[in-house]
Amino acid sequence: MINIIGLGYIGLPTALMFAKSGEVVVGTDYNTDLVNSLEKGILPFEEEGLEELHQKALNNGITFSTEYQKTHTYILAVPTPYIKESKKLDPKYVISALNSVLDVCDKGASVIIESTVSPGTVDKYVRPEIERRGYVIGEDIHLLHAPERIIPGNMIYELEHNSRTIGADNIEIGEKIKGLYLNFCKADIVVTDIRSAEMSKVVENTFRDINIAFANELAKICQMDNMDVYEIIRIANMHPRVNIMQPGPGVGGHCISVDPWFLVGDYPDLTNLILTARKINDSMPKHVLGRIRDIMREHNIKDISKVGLYGLAYKEDVDDTRESPTLQLLERMDEHLAFGVKVFDPHVKNSVVDYQSANFEEFLNEIEILVIMVGHNHIKENLNLIKSKHVLDTKNICTFEGVYKL
Ligand SMILES: NC(=O)c1ccc[n+]([C@@H]2O[C@H](COP(=O)([O-])OP(=O)(O)OC[C@H]3O[C@@H](n4cnc5c(N)ncnc54)[C@H](O)[C@@H]3O)[C@@H](O)[C@H]2O)c1
């Protein structure tokens, strides 16, 4: 039996996928409401294909519990935030989940950390904790790190098709756990040491952050001198070895905007490029704020409540708002006492911020300036409804005349 600890964006689909592939799975979360909902068939977030997968997993006998199970295989998919001041990883969720597992596990159990962790976390925090509890690593407990690469919005497909990395102290145990993931993973699985698995995961997200920062910096340069950044990127990308990403209103989510900070926190003297990229991406909501100010001035609009932000999620077609550029922008506005801006997101059903509209047409009726912060399919399908507004399109999805870009 596999006991998966933490049933969030990563743990839940992973648990369902293992169950669908025929493994006996118990999903454990200390959030009682979440466990109760899952038992009733209610899912905590939207994700393409998740309902069907949930049903298949239930048919195959998956159960959900607040209890940690006595078994031989554990997967930990708990949060790994960073500490705002020091930028270092906060291991408290991993250590707490680990201790709960150590309370009940079989001798010789494999503990697989799926959470993204900064390089060295296992050596610095996890091993000492296991030893402090009197267990011998390699005999009583086998340690592994199998970081996850899936992206919200395409999780189910990517669980099956992304290649994976498994870091293990003992290659034989690594190969055994690789066999477990091969139950559903159709792609390559590399077995390596734990340090390399930790580092490669953080490096992947840092690479993306840096590349997005380059596009964002270009957007600022082009805006300053009235050049079309999208046209310039399109042309530059025709070069066979150039592949510039698209600029945007900022970087959010639980991964790309978080993981590079682990390296900055641990290697402050060596991370000039990484830190600069983080700063550029974090500055984008302020850049959007400046663009809104320009448009308000140009049209002599003085009332901020005439501005509407479309999209609260951190990316298109999902309901996850963590670290989202819109939330970052609202924070900036708040600092400047710009209260009352309207907000709408078709995917975010619960009320996350003040002045959040539940109805798109009502939202449009109240505003004169529409700021597209997220390129949900919903807005792409409703472009005809927004043509009468002054539109600031930070996602480059509108092709009609008079649209303002980043
Ligand atoms: N969300 C993503 O797109 C994504 C992608 C790749 C990797 N990751 C990594 O996966 C990890 C999990 O992220 P997430 O987005 O799934 O987080 P999440 O916040 O959606 O879910 C975490 C869950 O863990 C539960 N939990 C926390 N501590 C627990 C404990 N001690 N015992 C039982 N349950 C506990 C919480 O109640 C929550 O339901 C993080 O390290 C993250 O960086 C996330």
Number of strands: 14
Mean pLDDT: 96
The overall number of domains is 2
The low-confidence runs, each spanning 5 or more residues with pLDDT under 50, are none
Order of helices and strands: EHEHHEEHEHEHEHEHHHHEHEEHEHEE
Strand percentage, roughly?
Answer: 5-15%
Looking at the chains present, what oligomeric state does this protein adopt?
A: single chain
Query: What's the CATH architecture name of the largest domain?
Result: 3-Layer(aba) Sandwich
| Structural class designation | alpha/beta
Helix content: 40-55%
Main sheet characteristics: 8 strands, mixed
Top CATH class of the largest domain = Alpha Beta
Strand order of the largest sheet: 3-2-1-4-5-6-7-8
CATH superfamily of the largest domain: NAD(P)-binding Rossmann-like Domain
Task: Identify the overall geometry.
Answer: globular
CA radius of gyration is: 23 Å
Report the bound ligands by name, code or SMILES.
Answer: nicotinamide-adenine-dinucleotide
Number of helices: 14
GO biological process, one term: polysaccharide biosynthetic process
Protein name: Nucleotide sugar dehydrogenase
Organism: Halobacillus trueperi
Keywords: NAD, Oxidoreductase
Task: Give the structure's gist in a few sentences.
GO terms for molecular function: NAD binding; oxidoreductase activity, acting on the CH-CH group of donors, NAD or NADP as acceptor; oxidoreductase activity, acting on the CH-OH group of donors, NAD or NADP as acceptor. This protein has 406 residues and is an alpha/beta fold.
